[in-house]
C-alpha cells in the first residue's frame, strides 16, 4: 500500500492488477474452435441416440471390448456421451448443453464479454433442470425424455408433494423464470388477456353476422394474437434489457377501437421509468465492476483481523451505584445555600454520571439567572467540593445545572466505550469513542466532521489517556488501508508503543528511519510534506471532479477513476502532535504556518490534525491556530485564563482531573468522562496488530526538500543583483514566480536565479515558498512594478 511519492508531481503509478483469465489470440482460436466442434459432436451424438440408443444400450457395459460394435453415428464415444447426458442425465434437455458448449466456443473465438456467457450458462442450466423435471413428470419409467435426474427429482417431489403439488411447483418455477429472465409482469399478462378478449369478442360478433366462418379459424386467430402480443412484450423487454440508455419517457396511448365498450374506452397513460443515460466511462466502469466487483482497498491485507474486545480491561467499579445519602446531603446543602442568598427553588432533579452528578434546579419565578451564576464560588464553598460547575441556564432547557463531583468516581473503561452499540453501529468516517456523558451515554464523535481537534490540560489530568482513547477508537474501527497516523511525540515516551504498527498504520517521510517523530526539524519537514500531499490530493480530486475524499474514494471503488492516471485509493491521514507547546516554542512560525495551512484546507481531502498541549497560553495557541480548530477538548487546567484560551470560557479550571473533560465543537460545552485506556492495554493492541502481516513499508509521504539555507529575506536594496530589475520584469510579465524561468530567460545558474527570487520576495514582488507550486506573483503588471520600485 505504501507508495513512494515525490513533490515533482505524479509519477506513473503501477497498473492495477486485476485477476483475469487471459488467453493469447492463438489460444483463443484453438480453445474456441475446440468448444464449437465439441458442441457439434454432442449434438450429433444426441440425435443419433434417438435412433440407435436402444440397440447400443447393451454394448455400454462392454465398452472396452473392441469386438462389440456400436451403432451410434459417433460410435462408442457418441454412445457413451449420449448415455451419460441423456439417459443418466437430463433427458432431451441435454441438447441445451450442446448448444451452450457451442455458444461458449463462439464467445471465446470472438472475444465477447464473459459476464454475458456466464449468464447464458446460469439460465441455460436452470432451463435444463426445469425441462428435465417437466418431462420426468409425464414418464412412468426412467426414460430418455426426462433422464435419470428428471425421474429421480420427480419421484422425490411426488413423494412429498403429490402430483398436484409437483405440477404447481413446476408452474411456479416457470413463472419465476419468465418474470426474472424476461421481465414479464402482471400488467403485461393482463394486457395480453385483454387483447385476446377483444379479439374473441370481435370474432363472436363476426360469427353472428357471418355464421359460415369456421370456429376453428377464429380460435387459431386468437392463438395467433396471444402469440404476437406475447412476442411483442418479450421483444420490448429484451430491448429494455439490452439498451436501457435508450429508454425515455414515453406516453402509451391505446387508440380506441370501433366497438369500444365502457371498460375499454378509457385512454390509458403509462409513464415509464427514465433510466439515467450512461456516459462512456460509466459503461466501462460498470463493466469492470461487473467483471471484477468493486475495488477493495483492504484486499492487500485481506486477512487482517481487527483487535478483539478482550484485549481491553473491564473494571469492577464500572457500574454506577446510587448513593441515596450523598444525593440527599447534596440536595439539602444546595437548597440551604441558595436560600441563604434568598433564592427559592421550585424543583430539583439529579442525573448521576460516572464522575459527577448534575442537579437541575428550577428556581422560583422572578429569580435572575445571573444572580445564581455570580454565587458560583459561594455555592462551591458551602458544598465544600472541588469541581462544582454551574451552568446557568442549561442550553435548551429553562433550568440551572449544578454539577457536583461524586464521592466515589467510577471508571469509564475503553472496553465499555468500544463495545457500546453507538460506537459499533456508527457509520461515521472516523468515529471516536471519547467516553461517557453525564447521563451515562457513550459519546461518539466523528473526527472527519470536527475536522481538527485541539486538546489541552495541565499535566497529569488525562491528556495522554485521551490521545490513546482517540487512537484506540480508530484502530478498532478502521482497516490499515483506510487510515494512517503521523505521530509527533517530542516527549519521546507517550506514543512509542505505536512503533509496532508502523507498517500497518503509520505514515512517514521517505528517508526517515523512525516513523514516530521526536525531533523538531523533522516535524517541520513532515508538515511541509503533508502540505505537498494535500496539494497532490487536491489535484487528484480536481481531476476526478470530486468535492471531497469520500466522494473520490467511492468513485475509485466503483472503478470510475483510472489508476494509470495517478488515481489511487486515499486513506485518511491523522496527524497527532503530543506537546505542541514545545514545538511552537522552538520552531515558531515554521510550524505555525504549515499547521495553519493544513487546518484551513485539509478537511476535504482527509487530513485531520489533533494537537495536544500542556500549556494552553496564548503564545502557544495563537489566534490563527484557534480560528482553525473549532473542536476542542479541555482537561483540567490550573487557571481561568487557561480555560478561556482553550474554550473561550471558564469551566476547565473547575474540572476534577483524571479524565474529566469538557468538549466543544463551537457551540455547546459537553462534560464527558474520558474513557480510560491504560498503557498495557495499548501495548496488547499494538502487539496484536503488529504480529499480523503488514505492508512492506509505512505509508510514504511525498519527499520534501527544505529551502536552501542561508536565505535571509532582509536583503538591502544596495546589495541587489545587477539583474534584479530584469528579473522582476521577466517574473511580472510571465506572472509566474519560479527560479527556473529566470534561469532560462536570463541564462543564469541555479544559485543566482535562486538568490534573485529571494531578493524579489524581500522586495514584495513574489510571495513565499509554497512547496511544489510556483510562487505567487504579487504585482499584476509592469506599470504596477515601476510604481512599486519607485516607492521603495
Ligand atoms: N479517563 C481516565 N479515567 C481514570 N483515570 C484517568 C483517566 N485519565 C487519566 N487518568 C489518571 O491520570 C493519570 C495521568 O493521566 P495522563 O498520563 O493521561 O496525564 P497527562 O495529562 O498526559 O500528563 P502529562 O502531560 O504529564 O503526560 C493516569 O495515569 C491515570 O491514573
TrEMBL record:
Q: Where does ATP bind?
A: 457-464
Q: Which GO terms describe its cellular component?
A: plasma membrane
Q: Which keywords does the record carry? A: ATP-binding, Cell cycle, Cell division, Cell membrane, Chromosome partition, DNA-binding, Membrane, Nucleotide-binding, Transmembrane, Transmembrane helix
The record's InterPro entries line, in alphabetical order, gives: FtsK/SpoIIIE/SftA, FtsK_4TM, FtsK_alpha, FtsK_dom, Ftsk_gamma, P-loop_NTPase, WH-like_DNA-bd_sf, WH_DNA-bd_sf
The subcellular localization recorded is: Cell membrane
- Segments passing through the bilayer: 29-51, 90-109, 121-140
Q: Coiled-coil region(s) at which residues?
A: none
Q: Name one GO biological process term.
A: cell division
Q: Which protein, by its recorded name, is this? A: S-DNA-T family DNA segregation ATPase FtsK/SpoIIIE
Q: Which organism is it from?
A: Seonamhaeicola aphaedonensis
Amino acid at each position: 500500500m505504501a507508495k513512494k511519492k515525490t513533490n515533482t508531481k505524479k509519477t506513473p503509478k503501477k497498473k492495477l492488477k486485476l485477476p483475469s483469465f487471459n488467453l493469447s489470440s492463438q489460444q483463443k482460436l484453438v480453445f474456441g474452435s475446440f468448444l464449437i466442434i465439441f458442441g457439434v459432436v454432442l449434438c450429433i451424438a444426441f440425435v443419433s441416440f434417438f435412433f440407435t440408443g436402444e440397440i447400443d444400450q447393451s454394448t455400454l457395459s462392454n465398452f472396452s471390448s473392441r469386438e462389440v460394435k456400436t451403432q451410434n453415428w459417433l460410435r462408442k464415444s457418441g454412445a457413451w456421451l449420449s448415455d451419460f447426458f441423456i439417459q443418466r442425465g437430463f433427458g432431451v434437455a441435454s441438447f441445451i448443453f450442446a448448444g451452450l458448449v457451442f455458444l461458449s466456443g463462439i464467445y471465446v473465438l470472438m472475444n465477447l464479454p464473459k459476464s454475458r456467457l456466464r449468464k447464458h450458462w446460469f439460465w441455460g442450466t436452470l432451463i435444463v433442470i426445469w425441462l428435465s423435471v417437466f418431462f420426468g413428470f409425464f414418464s412412468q419409467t426412467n426414460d430418455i425424455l426426462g433422464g435419470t435426474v428428471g425421474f429421480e427429482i420427480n419421484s422425490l417431489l411426488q413423494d412429498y408433494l403429490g402430483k398436484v403439488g409437483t405440477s404447481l411447483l413446476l408452474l411456479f418455477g416457470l413463472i419465476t423464470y419468465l418474470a426474472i429472465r424476461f421481465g414479464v409482469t402482471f400488467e403485461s399478462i393482463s394486457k395480453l388477456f385483454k387483447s385476446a378478449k377483444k379479439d374473441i369478442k370481435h370474432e363472436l360478433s363476426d360469427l353472428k353476422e357471418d355464421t359460415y366462418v369456421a370456429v376453428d379459424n377464429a380460435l387459431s386467430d386468437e392463438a395467433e394474437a396471444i402469440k404476437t402480443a406475447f412476442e411483442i412484450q418479450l421483444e420490448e423487454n429484451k430491448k429494455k434489457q439490452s439498451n436501457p440508455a435508450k429508454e425515455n419517457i414515453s406516453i402509451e396511448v391505446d387508440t380506441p377501437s370501433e366497438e369500444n365498450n365502457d371498460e375499454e374506452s378509457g385512454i390509458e397513460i403509462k409513464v415509464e421509468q427514465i433510466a439515467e443515460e450512461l456516459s462512456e466511462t460509466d459503461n466501462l466502469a460498470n463493466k469492470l465492476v461487473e467483471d471484477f466487483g468493486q475495488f477493495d482497498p483492504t484486499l492487500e491485507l485481506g486477512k487482517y483481523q481487527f483487535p478483539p474486545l478482550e484485549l481491553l480491561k473491564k473494571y469492577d467499579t464500572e457500574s454506577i451505584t446510587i448513593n441515596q445519602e450523598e444525593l440527599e446531603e447534596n440536595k439539602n446543602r444546595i437548597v440551604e445555600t441558595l436560600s441563604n442568598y434568598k433564592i427559592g427553588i421550585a424543583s430539583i432533579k439529579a442525573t448521576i454520571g460516572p464522575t459527577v452528578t448534575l442537579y437541575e434546579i428550577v428556581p422560583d419565578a422572578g429569580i435572575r439567572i445571573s444572580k445564581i451564576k455570580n454565587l458560583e464560588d459561594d455555592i462551591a464553598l458551602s458544598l465544600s467540593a472541588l469541581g462544582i460547575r454551574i451552568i446557568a441556564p442549561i442550553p435548551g432547557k429553562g433550568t440551572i445545572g449544578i454539577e457536583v463531583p461524586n464521592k466515589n468516581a467510577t471508571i469509564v473503561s475503553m472496553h465499555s466505550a468500544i463495545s457500546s452499540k453507538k460506537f459499533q453501529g456508527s457509520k461515521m468516517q472516523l468515529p471516536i469513542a471519547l467516553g461517557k456523558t453525564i447521563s451515562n451515554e457513550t459519546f461518539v464523535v466523528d473526527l472527519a466532521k470536527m475536522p481538527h481537534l485541539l486538546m489541552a490540560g495541565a499535566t497529569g489530568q488525562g491528556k495522554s489517556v485521551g490521545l490513546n482513547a482517540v487512537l484506540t477508537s480508530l484502530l478498532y474501527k478502521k482497516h490499515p488501508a483506510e487510515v494512517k497516523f503521523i505521530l509527533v511525540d517530542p516527549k519521546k515516551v507517550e506514543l512509542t508503543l505505536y512503533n509496532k504498527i508502523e507498517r500497518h498504520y503509520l505514515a512517514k517521510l521517505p528517508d526517515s528511519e523512525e516513523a514516530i517523530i521526536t525531533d523538531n526539524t523533522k516535524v517541520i519537514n513532515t508538515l511541509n510534506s503533508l502540505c505537498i500531499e494535500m496539494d497532490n490530493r487536491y489535484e487528484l480530486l480536481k481531476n476526478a471532479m470530486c468535492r471531497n475524499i469520500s466522494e473520490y474514494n467511492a468513485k475509485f471503488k466503483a472503478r470510475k477513476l483510472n489508476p494509470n492516471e495517478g488515481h489511487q485509493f486515499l486513506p485518511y491521514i491523522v496527524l497527532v502532535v503530543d506537546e505542541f507547546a514545545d514545538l511552537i516554542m522552538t520552531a515558531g512560525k515554521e510550524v505555525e504556518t504549515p499547521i495553519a495551512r493544513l487546518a484551513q484546507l485539509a478537511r476535504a481531502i482527509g487530513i485531520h490534525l489533533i494537537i495536544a498541549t500542556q500549556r494552553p497560553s496564548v503564545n502557544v495557541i495563537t489566534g490563527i491556530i484557534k480560528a482553525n480548530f473549532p473542536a476542542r477538548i479541555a482537561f483540567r487546567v490550573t487557571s481561568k485564563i487557561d480555560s478561556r484560551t482553550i474554550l473561550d470560557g471558564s469551566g476547565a479550571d473547575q474540572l476534577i482531573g483524571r479524565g474529566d473533560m469538557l468538549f466543544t465543537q463551537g457551540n455547546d460545552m459537553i462534560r464527558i468522562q474520558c474513557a480510560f485506556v491504560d498503557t498495557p492495554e495499548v501495548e496488547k493492541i499494538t502487539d496484536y496488530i503488529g504480529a499480523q502481516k503488514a505492508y512492506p513499508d509505512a505509508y510514504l509521504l511525498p519527499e520534501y526538500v527544505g529551502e536552501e539555507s542561508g536565505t535571509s529575506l532582509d536583503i538591502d536594496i544596495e546589495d541587489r543583483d545587477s539583474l534584479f530589475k530584469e528579473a522582476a520584469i521577466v517574473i511580472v510579465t510571465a506572472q509566474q514566480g519560479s527560479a527556473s524561468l529566470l534561469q532560462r530567460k536570463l541564462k543564469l545558474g541555479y544559485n543566482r536565479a535562486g538568490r534573485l527570487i529571494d531578493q524579489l520576495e524581500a522586495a514584495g514582488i513574489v510571495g513565499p515558498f509554497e512547496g511544489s507550486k510556483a510562487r505567487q506573483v504579487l504585482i499584476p503588471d509592469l506599470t504596477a512594478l515601476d510604481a512599486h520600485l519607485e516607492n521603495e
